[in-house]
Amino acid sequence: xxxxxxxxxxxxxxxxxxxxxxxxxxxxxxxxxxxxxxxxxxxxxxxxxxxxxxxxxxxxxxxxxxxxxxxxxxxxxxxxxxxxxxx
Length: 87
Hints:
It is built from 4 helices and no strands. By secondary structure, it is mainly α. Helix 2 packs across helix 3 (64-77). The two termini are 16 Å apart.
């Protein structure tokens, strides 16, 4: 796989109650728990223009941070370097 194309309309617009691509919310959860320094502002979907249009930020029963960790494990198992995983 060399490229993965996201459907542009899904990235920039969501209907009421619909989230954009789940990985964006997972990245926000990881930012808050792992990446952000104590003095940096949190990266919350509510503050990001591409994620705050529908008002839906969570999925019942889904733990975005746990899903992010699973995604990173999958990348590792597929042979992606740490640098490739965060680019």
